[in-house]
Amino acid sequence: MNQENCDCARCPIPRSERSCEAPLGLAPAGCPTEIYQELNQKALSLLAEPLCREFARQAACQEKEGYRLEEGHTVPIKPRLLEIAEFAGRMGYRKLGLAFCSGLYREGKKVAEFLVGRDFEVVSACCKVGRTPKEELGLDDGDKLHPGRFEPMCNPLLQALLLNEAKTEFNILLGLCVGHDSLFFRHGQAPCTVLAVKDRLLGHNPLAAVYQLDSYYRCLSHR
Ligand code: SF4
User: Fold this and answer.
1) Atom 8 of ligand 1 has which residue's CA nearest to it?
2) In three state form, how does the secondary structure of the chain look?
3) Ligand 1 pocket test: which of 17, 19, 36 has the largest number of ligand atoms within 8 Å of its C-beta?
4) Which of 59, 94, 134, 145 has a CA 20 to 30 Å removed from the CA of 32?
5) Cα–ligand 1 centroid distance for 15 (angstroms)
6) Using one digit for the tens of pLDDT, what is the confidence trace for 122-139?
7) What are the tens digits of pLDDT across the range 148-158?
8) CATH, domain range 79-223
């Protein structure tokens, strides 16, 4: 384990025996649960802020409600779409923002209708909103998908500003590109969750590549 940076992703301890999962659990060298107790106190002190505390409390309740117990086993019972709607309801939010990719118009419409059907007010903005040409980013014609044509850039900043302007209470991202999502996270004011991320190749399921890194996608591991 790296001594300087925490490296939970490569923790060698079996999950149920880990320091972070069990009171007398085992900790590898560099374990942040053991080393960064002061920082954890700082994290806990952030929960003194009532909204943060309520958010965390309701998220924990929502997590629990995502399962039913069956003969001692946890069985997942809710899709994320439903969890998002339930969580927003738990928090008392009524006005939701939906920032979606233009390539997922149909999905965006379905999601908006689903949420409206649950009595939420939905403010939605697609990624091409603003019709700003890619040239605005300093890109050349050759940088476009279709050189020689007008091509609007994705505009996550305007998506964020529009939802800020509408004073949405909770924002939902649907299929924004890598990097565009980061800009939205940075500039959107309301708390934000992600319904789905963009993966053009794999039906917006990036984990499909992860699950196959030892087989069909092993080529990705060799650079
Ligand atoms: S917190 Fe410690 S025990 Fe838990 S995964 Fe990270 S390194 Fe392993």
Assistant:
1) 11
2) CCCCCCCHHHCCCCHHHECCCCCCCECCCCCHHHHCHHHHHHHHHHCCCHHHHHHHHHHHHHHHHCEEEECCEEEECCCHHHHHHHHHHHCCCCEEEEEECHHHHHHHHHHHHHHHCCCCEEEEEECCCCCCEHHHHCCCHHHCCCCCCCCECCCHHHHHHHHHHCCCCEEEEECCCCCHHHHHHHHCCCCEEEEECCCCCCCCCCHHHHHCCCCCCHHHHCC
3) 19
4) 59
5) 9
6) 999 999 999 999 999 999
7) 999 999 999 99
8) 3.40.50.11840
